[in-house]
Amino acid sequence: MAKDFKTLVRMRKWALDDKQRQLGEMLGVLGNLEAEKAALEQAVIAEQKVAAENPELAGFAYGGFANAVIAEREAISKMITAQEEKIDAFRDEVADAFKELKTAEIAERNRAEAEQAEADKKEQDELDEIGTRSATRDDGLI
After folding, report:
1. Is position 96 within any domain?
2. Region labeled Disordered — which residues (predicted)?
3. Residue 30: which of 103, 83, 99 has the closest Cα?
4. How far apart are CA 65 and CA 55, in angstroms?
5. How far does Cα 67 stand from its chain's mean position?
6. How many angstroms from the chain centroid is the CA of residue 83?
7. Is 3 inside any structural domain?
8. For the CA atoms of the chain, what is the radius of gyration?
9. Residue 22 within a domain
10. pTM of this prediction?
11. Does 42 map to a domain?
12. For the chain, what is the domain count?
């Protein structure tokens, strides 16, 4: 029985570690998307600077660039929102895995404490029996 609880605790810990790893990967994807959005903003600033320096050439190219940037910005924003929602939902799974681990650890601890209490009671009963026999011999009853 003791081994069952230890195995359960180990399995719950492994499941929690796996979920935390997955959450880390999801956060990494979110970070990459945010970095991509920031890089896009830097590209807009650089393109605006070039357009300001050379307005004749920029008139043709900047319009198409601006439309592409707007579309890409919207796409990245949607992906960021979707990833944040996915992360929020997955955090609940991580919390559930943590609760399951703690429940298993508490059950294991309670089992160990009950087993120890039983062993202590058995030892105390044996000591009481020895004491009773010793007292009976001293009183001359045996």
Report:
1. yes
2. 109-142
3. 83
4. 14
5. 40
6. 16
7. no
8. 34
9. yes
10. 0.70
11. yes
12. 1
Would you state the pLDDT for residue 127?
Answer: 86
Determine the longest span between alpha carbons in the chain, in angstroms. Answer: 123
**44: which 2 tokens?**
């807009």
Written as six digits, the tokens of 104 are 């298993």
Residue 24 belongs to what H/E stretch? helix 2-53
Task: For residue 36, give the DSSP letter.
Answer: H
Provide the token pair at 142: 């045996």
- Under 8 Å CB-to-CB from 108, ≥6 apart: which residues? 5, 6, 8, 9
Query: How many CB atoms within 10 Å of residue 50?
Result: 14
Residue 73 tokens read as 């910005």
For residue 12, the model assigns a pLDDT of 93
Q: Residue 35 is part of which domain span?
A: 10-139
- Rounded Cα gap, residues 31 and 125, in angstroms: 64
CA distance 39 to 35: 6
Joined together, the tokens standing for residue 77 give 């924003």
